[in-house]
Design brief:
Helix content: 40-55%
Largest sheet: 4 strands, antiparallel
Strand content: 15-25%
Number of helices: 6
Order of helices and strands: EEHHHEEHHEEH
Oligomer: single chain
Distance between the termini: 47 Å
Strand order of the largest sheet: 3-4-6-5
Length: about 190
């Protein structure tokens, strides 16, 4: 007959015929096990008592956002920036991430003031756009860095008044940490 004996550190199988002479009485075995458990718990308690213990928290891949989630977040935050700072709502904002490059396309980005200045052919239109760029670039950089959790190396932007759109090209310090897509996870 085989008997399984378990302890905190290991499990062992033994044949009763071989262990009868070496067998401890059950009460003594339980007492020894209790001592080893209390010693183990006191060691754990000593480790838990160290408040300055360094614990590296690495997010699991399943807790990371997908590329789509990050792009939606950037789009929504940019929309909020247009709304709060310019009292203007673009038609749509589309983002695409290519490794460490982010491309943002803003349809309907031209404000009513810019449209009017463009209609009359005002030379002040360029000054207005340069002012927008100067004021908004730091906010856009901070927004992107916050959403993607990576540094922005450079941000370039241009506006087309004929089409009423703005494009942003952003070079990131590295590819943002994202959850692998189901397609790439299944193909490996």
């Amino acid at each position: 007959m085989t008997k399984f004996v378990s302890s905190n550190s290991d499990a062992m199988a033994s044949d009763n015929s071989q262990t009868r002479g070496n067998r401890q009485p059950e009460a003594e075995h339980v007492q020894n096990r209790s001592k080893s458990e209390s010693e183990s718990n006191s060691q754990k308690g000593a480790l838990d008592a160290q408040p300055e213990a360094i614990i590296a928290v690495v997010p699991s891949e399943s807790s990371l956002p997908t590329v789509g989630q990050l792009m939606r977040m950037v789009s929504q935050k940019l929309l909020g920036l247009y709304r709060s700072q310019l009292n203007h709502v673009p038609e749509s904002i589309t983002c695409h991430l290519f490794s460490n490059k982010l491309i943002v396309w803003v349809d309907g980005s031209v404000t009513d003031v810019e449209k009017r200045l463009a209609e009359i052919g005002s030379t002040r239109l360029k000054v207005v756009r340069e002012t927008f760029d100067r004021l908004f670039k730091p906010q856009i950089v901070a927004l992107i860095e916050h959403c993607l959790q990576v540094d922005v190396i450079t941000l370039m932007s241009d506006t087309c008044y004929e089409q009423g759109c703005t494009s942003l090209t952003v070079l990131l310090s590295e590819h943002p940490r994202v959850r692998p897509s189901r397609k790439s996870a299944g193909s490996t």
